[in-house]
Amino acid sequence: MARKLLPRKKSVRANPFQPTLLRGQPLRVSAGLQARYQQELDALVTVMMASTYRELVALFLSPSAQAFFAQDAGISSQARLLMEALTRHIRKHFTLRATQLVKRMMTEVDKVSSARVSNSLRELSGGVSLKTSAILPSYQAILESSITENVNLIKSIATRYLDKVKEAAMRSITSGNGLQDLIPFLQAQEGITRRRARNIALDQTRKAYNGFNRDRCVGAGVTHGEWIHSGGGLHPREKHQDFSGHVFDLTQGAPIGPEDEYVQPGEEPNCKCAFAPILQFTGGNA
Questions:
Q1: How do strand 247-249 and strand 224-228 relate by DSSP bridges?
Q2: Rounded (10°) CA dihedral 162, 167, 169, 174
Q3: What element of type H or E holds 212?
Q4: Closest by alpha carbon to 218, among 270, 260, 271, 275?
Q5: What is the DSSP string of 109-120?
Q6: How far, in Å, CA of 147 to CA of 160, rounded?
Q7: Which residues have a Cβ under 8 Å from the Cβ of 143 and sit 6 or more positions away?
Q8: What is the pLDDT along the chain (286 residues), one digit of tens a residue?
Q9: Are 147 and 102 in contact (CB under 8 A)?
Q10: Most exposed residue of 31, 72, 90, 103, measured as fewest CB within 10 angstroms of its CB?
Q11: Rounded CA separation 147/239 (Å)
Q12: Are 213 and 267 in contact (CB under 8 A)?
């Protein structure tokens, strides 16, 4: 028989000998956190695409390009040299800015997580403040792995974009169409790159936030949570939908990933699921 989930006030009026589960506030990721990180990452991408566009257009409008575009091998050499220089400059800039952006994002996520977990556990315990300052060894691992993953993903945005632009520039030279082919490609690639940056920002914010939440809950002695499906998305994962409302072990995850792998809320790409901390309440004591 499934155990009934009750808020604290109702649970204390229930049968004191009937096990129940106390439920804290759901720990949903802050839309503001995601938006700020997305905006900062989008601004970084904007600078990259604007400088690439400016330099390539200047090259293709140069006298040598105009006079000998289809025949002169020099324009191909110039394009390769330009892309190599742009790649070095942008990658260096992305590495520096990515590290700064990620560390600032992680600091904000950590701060919001601390406040919300504290509030959720206070509700769960009926107003008693549970100690949430206990930091497990996994905390530092979560922090370091999140920073590394985020930085690498941001750097990959530049690498993927520049590789594709270089290929397109060479094709436009070979075809003899020049900017007629290149400009539409750059415009299409802008939308693709912005969407990828947006998805990275949203996914990584959710993963970091949920990771900090789990660590704080477990550190406070709360080892289980109720899975909460986001209810959004055009193509929701059926396993996540079906598991919504079920209790799972925060230290292990739920067996609802690909091939029944154990996953945590927000861990899979584009997963917007969250969890609410849970405590078993038996015989009048939590």
A1: antiparallel
A2: 170
A3: helix 179-219
A4: 275
A5: HHHHHHHHHHHH
A6: 20
A7: 106, 110
A8: 334 443 444 444 444 545 577 889 999 998 999 999 999 999 999 999 999 999 988 888 877 666 555 455 567 788 888 888 889 989 888 888 999 999 999 999 999 999 999 999 888 777 655 555 555 667 777 788 888 989 999 999 999 999 999 999 989 888 878 899 999 999 999 999 999 999 999 999 999 999 999 999 998 889 999 999 987 667 789 999 999 999 999 999 999 999 999 999 999 988 999 999 998 755 544 4
A9: yes
A10: 31
A11: 29
A12: no
DSSP type of residue 125: T
| Integer angstrom CA distances of residue 49 from 41, 78, 107, 157, 189 | 13, 19, 28, 11, 9
Task: Answer for the pair 22, 279: CB distance below 8 angstroms, yes or no.
Answer: yes
Contacts of 240 (CB under 8 A, 6+ apart): 227, 229, 256, 271, 273
Tokens at 239, concatenated: 């396993």
Location of structure tokens 């154990």? 262
| Residue labelled with tokens 């477990």 | 218
Asked if 166 and 186 count as a contact pair (C-beta separation under 8 A), the reply is no
The pTM assigned to this predicted structure is 0.81
Cβ(230)–Cβ(239) below 8 Å: no
**Strand boundaries in the chain, DSSP class E:** 5-6, 20-23, 224-228, 247-249, 274-281
Q: Is 25 exposed, middle or buried (0-12, 13-18, 19+ CB in 10 A)?
A: middle
Cβ 115 vs Cβ 32: under 8 Å: no
Cα separations (Å) of 243 from 21, 43, 96, 225, 227? 17, 38, 41, 12, 7
**Distance in angstroms (rounded) separating the CA atoms of residues 161 and 19:** 56
